[in-house]
Design goal:
CATH superfamily of the largest domain: PPM-type phosphatase domain
Number of domains: 2
Distance between the termini: 25 Å
CATH class of the largest domain: Alpha Beta
Number of strands: 17
Largest sheet: 6 strands, mixed
CATH architecture of the largest domain: 4-Layer Sandwich
Strand order of the largest sheet: 1-4-5-6-2-3
Structural class: alpha+beta
Helix content: 25-40%
Shape: globular
CATH topology of the largest domain: Phosphatase 2c, domain 1
C-alpha cells in the first residue's frame, strides 16, 4: 500500500476542520481484539467475530479495525452522492447530519481522490475501496503508524471493505451518511438502480457518474463483467423526474434481462423497446448506447440509439468521435441500423455521455461544448488520472461551469482498455 508521509506539518484544512472536533472515539467492539497480536490470521478472526455480532453497528466494526492496527481512535468517512465531500459515519449515527468535510484541501479528501494512504502528524487516512469502487476513507489517530506491519494493514483494510460492502445491504447507515441534502424520490430510485460507480481489473477500467446527484431523473447507466467481456449501456429517458425514472427503470432492467439471457445487442435493443412501448405507450422512448468490449481482442461493439457520439482518447491525444449510424430511440418501433466495431489499443479511453453534459450552459449562456469536454479529457489522461477520478473531476467541473445548477441530467461512462 503506497504511503505518503507529509510530516511534520499538519494539513491546515484538517486541523481547522470543525467536523473533527467532538467526534466520538470508536465504541469498544463486542469482543476486543488483542492489539498486541499482530499476526494477520488473529487480526482477521478478531475482525470477523466483531462483524458477525451485528448487522448495523458499523462503528464498532470500524473501531475494531482501529484497535487491531493500534490506533487511539478510528472513524469511517463515506463519500457523498456527488463525490464532492466526505461525511463521518459516527456523526450520522449519533447526530443525524454532520458538517461534511470538503473533498478538496483536506487530508482525507486527498487520500480518497488519489487512492493513497496519507499521514500528517498522528492523523492517518487510508482509502477504503473494492475493485476501485471508492467507499470512503478510514481515518485514524495513530501515534506510531510507521511501526504497523505492512502485511497487516492491507488484509485488514481489505476485509473491512468487504464487510462494509456486505453490511450495506442490510442497513441504511451508509446511505444516510452519503446525503448532504435531501434526495428526491426519483433520485432514490435511480441510485438504487445503478451498479457500483467503478470497477477496475488488470484488463479494463469502467467508471460512471451522473448529475445532478440529488435530483437525477431519466439518465442512467449499467455495466457487468462476464467472462472475457464487459457489457454496458447508457440511457436517457424522455421527460423529467418520476415519469422519466420509471421509463429508465424499465429500460435498464430490459437491457439487463437481455444480457443475462445471453441475447445480443440487437435483441437487447428490440426487446427493451417493446417493453417500453407496452408499458408506457407510443409517446415514451429512451435514447442510449449499448455495447460490449471483448477483452482478449479489444474489439468494442456498440450501437447508437440517438446519443452524442463517444469520444476516443488514444496515445494521450484526442483521436476522434467513434462513428455509428444512428438507430431511432428505443420504444419507437425501430430496428438497429448498425452495430459498429472499433478495435481498441492498450491505453485507449472511450467516453460515452448524454447531451446534458455538452449542453450545460454558463451564466453567460455559453454551452460547455465538445471542445471543452475533449480538452478536459486529454489533460486528465496526460495527468495520469484514473477514469474514476477523471469522471469525478469532470462532473465537478460541469457543475461549476453551470454555476446555478443543471437544467438537464448529465451522465458519463468511461472505459479504459489496459490490454489483453
Amino acid at each position: 500500500m503506497a504511503v505518503e508521509d507529509v510530516r511534520p506539518s499538519v494539513d491546515p484544512a484538517i486541523a481547522s476542520d470543525p467536523t473533527t472536533s467532538g467526534v466520538a472515539r470508536h465504541r469498544p467492539p463486542t469482543a476486543a481484539p488483542d492489539v498486541e497480536d499482530h499476526s494477520v490470521g488473529a487480526a482477521l478472526v478478531a475482525l470477523l467475530d466483531v462483524a458477525s455480532a451485528s448487522t448495523s453497528d458499523l462503528a464498532s466494526i470500524v473501531g475494531a479495525v482501529g484497535s487491531i492496527l493500534g490506533a487511539r481512535s478510528a472513524r469511517l468517512l463515506v463519500a457523498d452522492y456527488s463525490l464532492n465531500s466526505l461525511r463521518y459515519l459516527a456523526n450520522e449515527i449519533e447526530d443525524g447530519h454532520g458538517v461534511p468535510p470538503a473533498m478538496e484541501g483536506t487530508l482525507a479528501g486527498r487520500a480518497f481522490s488519489r487512492g493513497e494512504t496519507l499521514v500528517s502528524g498522528d492523523r492517518v487516512c487510508v482509502p477504503v475501496s473494492e475493485n476501485s469502487e471508492r467507499i470512503g476513507v478510514l481515518e485514524m489517530d495513530h501515534p506510531a503508524w510507521e511501526e504497523v506491519p505492512e502485511d497487516l494493514i492491507d488484509p485488514v483494510v481489505r476485509i473491512l471493505t468487504l464487510i462494509l460492502v456486505s453490511k450495506r445491504r442490510y442497513t441504511d447507515a451508509m446511505l444516510r451518511t452519503r446525503r448532504t441534502e435531501e434526495l428526491s424520490l426519483a433520485a432514490e430510485m435511480q441510485w438504487g438502480l445503478l451498479p457500483p460507480l467503478s470497477c477496475t481489473t488488470p484488463k479494463v477500467s469502467v467508471s460512471g457518474i451522473l448529475e445532478p446527484a440529488y435530483s437525477i431523473g431519466g439518465d442512467s447507466f449499467d455495466f457487468a463483467f462476464n467472462a472475457d467481456m464487459v457489457e454496458f449501456g447508457i440511457i436517457d429517458a424522455v421527460g423529467h423526474g418520476m415519469s422519466a425514472v420509471l421509463i429508465s427503470t424499465v429500460a435498464i432492467n430490459g437491457l439487463r434481462n437481455a444480457r443475462r439471457e445471453g441475447r445480443g445487442l440487437e435483441s437487447a435493443y428490440a426487446d427493451t423497446g417493446r417493453a417500453i412501448a407496452s408499458q408506457f405507450g407510443d409517446d415514451a422512448f429512451v435514447t442510449g448506447q449499448i455495447g460490449s468490449l471483448d477483452l482478449p481482442s479489444g474489439n468494442l461493439s456498440w450501437l447508437n440509439a440517438g446519443h452524442p457520439l463517444p469520444l476516443l482518447i488514444r496515445n494521450g491525444a484526442y483521436a476522434d468521435e467513434l462513428s455509428c449510424r444512428p438507430s431511432i430511440p428505443m420504444g419507437l418501433g425501430g430496428t438497429v441500423k448498425e452495430v459498429a466495431v472499433e478495435h481498441l489499443q492498450a491505453g485507449d479511453c472511450v467516453l460515452f455521455y448524454t447531451d446534458g453534459v455538452t449542453e450545460t450552459r454558463s451564466a453567460d449562456g455559453d454551452q460547455f461544448g465538445v471542445p471543452r469536454l475533449v480538452d478536459f479529457l486529454v489533460r486528465a489522461v496526460n495527468d495520469g488520472l484514473a477514469p474514476v477520478e477523471t469522471l469525478r473531476s469532470l462532473s465537478a467541473a460541469i457543475l461549476a461551469y453551470s454555476g446555478t445548477g443543471l437544467s438537464d441530467d448529465a451522465t458519463l461512462v468511461m472505459i479504459e482498455y489496459h490490454g489483453p
